[in-house]
Each structure stands twice: as structure tokens, then as C-alpha cells.
Amino acid sequence: MRGTAILVLLLTLAHTTADQPTVDAFFPAGASRGATVPVNVIGKTHTDTLQWWVSHPGLTIVKTSEEKAPWRFCVEHDVPLGAHWVRAYNEEGSALPQLFLVGEGSESHEVEPNDSHINAQAIESWPTTIHGRLAKRGDVDAFAVALDEGQSVRISVDAYRIDAPIDPLLHITDAEGHQLAWNHDRYDSLDPECTFQAPAAGRYVILLSGFAYPPQARSSFQGSAETVYRLRLLEPLAEEIECPPEPQALSFETTIQGVVSQPGEVDRYAFEAVKDERYVFTVNAQAINSPLDAWLEIQDHKGKSLAKNDDASGADASLTWKAPSQGPYTLTLRDLLRDGGPTFRYELVGSKAHPTVTVTTPDHAWTVKRGEKVEIAINLQRRHGHQEPVMVKMVGLTNTCQAEPVTIAGEEKNGTLSITASEACPLGSKIVQIEADGKPIRCAFKGATTEAGALHRQDLKHFVLTVTE
Fold first, then answer.
1. How many Cβ atoms are within 10 Å of 251's Cβ, its own excluded?
2. Are residues 384 and 428 in the same domain?
3. Would 255 be classed as within a structural domain?
4. Residue range 43-66, pLDDT digits in tens
5. Quick check: 6 pLDDT over 60?
6. What does residue 15 show for φ and ψ, rounded to 5 degrees?
7. Does residue 208 lie within any of the structural domains?
8. Taking a C-beta distance cutoff of 8 angstroms, is the pair 416, 405 a contact?
9. Residues 146 and 168 in one domain
């Protein structure tokens, strides 16, 4: 009887260690360039079978012997600033990908207790970044900063945009707890941001809390192990600086490499347009890990605004415009918040509106049993009269998995890619990509709690295919 019990226990443990992992959040949610930090992976993982995939090779993850934080995230000095994808997976499947934020400069952790203006955690100097967590229902985190009269500080929160289940709130009080300012949402996100100017020299308190997201019936503040955030104290943004008198000439069908090199900078490009011709101007910044949140605007020769765009694909702007008349026009490009710096790089492409197609799939991972097949939905968004057939295939498979390329006809907006695993197909998970006419497609990824397009990044182009018995 005792031997039977031991056998059952061993079988149970073997099954447990093979469960598909789940990852709800990382704490801390990021690290500075050049740092190696212990990270608490919040979810259900089994370290002996876990593998990691990251979107940049300069971010690596190593296992340690520490029970509470068995993983260390190592960030090389040249890793681009911004959000990077991190995915945990094992032989049974993949966890939901998470974002890890790479910053620079001083970074630290919230220290409890700090739930009111009385016991607020002191911030000795800034700019700085603080990683924290609203760990229980009703939680409020408080931070104190000393300001001179007239001194301004910009306070920014990342929580909703990294898929934390929260709609955050910021309140600023004086040392006695009297509210002086507050912010609920940025104009483009549920994450708050505000610039506060001290009316007098003294101690001021930043209070961070939030409601559950998606919204729930209860009105109390949200808190849980996965309600993590990044709080940044930054220099205030500059006003628009004086621009060169002559804009740079823009040549169509070429890629311009540029940088918004300082706060307040506006880059200007001149071009000639033909009446009733359609043009497309696209900024690529997010995909090259630039912190630039691009803003595009077209003006006529008198400076009148004719068209503008902020976010077309994540934080990247794209503007399709029909010229009202023949003549000269100016395209202006800046950061949405008028921020800037040497890392605010971008690629700008202007072209006539040729027929184009964007191909996506709604899922980030699939599971197929040996001897069976899985069908993968493929969605096409055709623009400017695109009617060409599109050939879709999966790359990275073993020879024992069959995935015949599928051609989606010119009038179709949807298709299906079938993957068949033979009885000899190796068990386990594999990182794969899907290509459309030779170019990787992305997942239409929106996270566990966020709405589509709300995360810092949406360009997930690597998937997991898992083969099971």
C-alpha cells in the first residue's frame, strides 16, 4: 500500500512539473541598462522545465538557486531603451508573453510601509525610476519628494501599458495631505502622467493607486500580486524649440533615418504633391526600440494644418493623405509629448499610396497532438486597392511536421494555415514564425487585460507551436 502511494505521488509530481506555464507579471517590471536583477515571475511555473524566449539578444535570463526569485534578468549596456517581449514556455505549451521595460539611470524598488503622506517613501534625487506593486485590495503607495519654489517635476506611470490589471490614479499632496493636483489618464492611455510645479519650497507626496481593469462592480482600489507598475520622476517637457528656417527635402520611396535629438524638437520635411494624388507617410520607431511616440502633421505653404496622426500601429504614426491641390507642403514630425534625446530615433518613409496588405494572426501559440492537425487563422487588411494573392507559410518546423503553404486569393480577407504533426513528430515546444510573401507576420496581440493597441508594443512576430501526445 505504501509503495502504491509513493508511485501515485511520483506520477502526480511528474504531471505537475509538465504543466503549461502561466506568467501574469514580472516584479520588478524592468531594469536599467547594464543591470542584473532578481525577478519574481508571478504565475505558475516549474523552473526545471522552463525555457525562455526574448525579443532582443542583449536581454538574457539565468536560473539561480534562490527560492523566492529563482530568475535573474541580465540587461546588456547596448539593449535599446523601451519594452521588450519575454516569453516562458515548456514542453506543454507557452505562457502569455509579457513586456519587460529597459531604462537607464537610477532605478529602485518601492519599500513598504508607504501607504499615506505620513509614511511616504522618500525620493532623495531624480530623475529616477521606482518599481512597485499594489499588492492587496485598497493599497496605496506614497512617495515624498522635496521641491524648491517654482520647481517642476514630471510624474509618469507605466502599468496598464504593460498589462497590469489596473486603471491607475496619481494624486499629489502637500506634507499635511492636502490635495494639490491629480491625474487619472493620459490623453492616449489609462496610465496617468502629470507635471507638477511646487507653489512653495517643501515636501510633496505622490500617491499612486488605481481601480481594477477591466472594470468591476466594487469601488475599492485594486491590488494583487500582478498589479505591478513603474513610476518615473522626470524633468518637465520642453516647449517647441526654434526650428531651422528651411525644412529638409523629402524624397518619396526612400527611408530617412532621423532622431528627435532633444525635448521640444520638431523635424520638418518639404515635398511637392500632385492634386488628388494619395500619399502615405509612415514612422517606424517602436520596432527599432525607440522611445519616440511619433506625431505627424501635414501643413500647406501657409502653415495651415491639413492632416495629422499619432498612433496607427502602437506608438508608431502613419498618415494617408489626399492632396487637395498641386503645390508645396511640409510634413512635421515630433514626439507626442515633445520629449526627445539621442535615443529617440526613427525611420520615416514617404510614398505614393501603392496597394498594400497587412497580414496578422489572432493567436500567439498553438498546440497540436501527434497524428492530428491544428488550423491557424490568417487575417488580411488590404489597402489602396490591393487585390494580389498572398502566399502564407510557417517557418522553423521540423521535417516531421507538415505545413503546406496556403495561397489566399486576391479578393479574400481571411485564410487558414493547417499544421499536421506526424506520429514521429518530436514532443515539446518550438519557436516558429509565419511568413506572408516572405515577410514575417505579427500576432494581433492585446494582452490579458488591455484593449487592442494599448500595450507599449504590439509587434510580436515569434510564436510557439507545441506538439503533445
1. 11
2. yes
3. yes
4. 998 878 899 999 999 999 999 988
5. no
6. -70, -40
7. yes
8. no
9. yes
DSSP string, 38-79: EEEEEEE--TTT-EEEESSTTEEEEE-S-SS--EEEEE-TTS
Q: Is the pLDDT of residue 401 over 90?
A: no
Beta strands in 175-304 (DSSP E): 179-183, 193-197, 202-212, 228-234, 248-249, 254-259, 267-273, 278-284, 294-299
8 Å CB contact between 46 and 17: yes
Is the per-residue pLDDT at 380 higher than 50?
yes
Q: What is the enclosing helix (H) or strand (E) of 123?
A: strand 121-123
* Of 354, 373, 391, the domain-final residue: 354
This prediction's pTM: 0.84
C-alpha 249/C-alpha 258 separation (Å) is 13
**Domain assignment of residue 239, yes or no:** no
Q: Identify whether residues 118 and 219 lie together within a single domain.
A: yes
Per-residue cell: 425: 513528430
| Pairing label, strands 267-273, 248-249 | parallel
Identify whether residues 164 and 230 lie together within a single domain. Answer: yes
Q: How far is CA 306 from CA 242, 299, 322, 330, 399, in A?
A: 22, 5, 10, 10, 54
User: What residue numbers bound the domain in which 40 lies?
Assistant: 2-103
Interatomic CA distance for residues 226 and 134, integer angstroms = 8
Cell of 285: 520607431
CATH code of residue 422: 2.60.40.10
| Vertex 53: Cα angle to 163 and 371 (nearest 5) | 105
Q: What is the DSSP letter of 85?
A: E
Q: Give the single-character DSSP code of 16.
A: H
The answer to whether 84 and 100 have CB atoms below 8 angstroms apart is: yes
Q: By the 8 A CB rule, do 364 and 97 touch?
A: yes
- pLDDT, residue 48, reads 81
DSSP 425-437: SPPEEEEEEEEET
Closest Cα partner for 385 from 360, 410, 414? Answer: 410
Q: Return the percentage of the chain with pLDDT > 70, whole number.
A: 93
* Same domain as 400, residue 293: no
Choose one of 205, 234, 263: the last residue of a domain: 234
Confidence of residue 11 (pLDDT cuts 50, 70, 90): very low
Amino acid letter for position 76: E
Residues 435 and 338 in one domain: no
